[in-house]
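Mods, move this if it's the wrong board.
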Amino acid sequence: MDDQIPADEAYNPWTIVNAVFHRLVDAGLHPVLGSAGDPGAAAAALLVTLGIRPAVPGDSRSLREAAEELARLRETVFGDR
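Not the wrong board. Structure tokens:
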């Protein structure tokens, strides 16, 4: 890893995916991502393969899981309102 880049630096997944896709198109390929639904998991897998940690704000799965956990906590603490 480059010593100039902090180890904890995160990237917006869609910026990286967009850059990779443009390179693939420039090479004459026709990449498709998410043709079967939400492309978030495939985009995250692409980033991990490239050695990049996806940023939480760019991962809708993390946001959805956080919202579900907060709902469970509210129910536990405050009960059914």
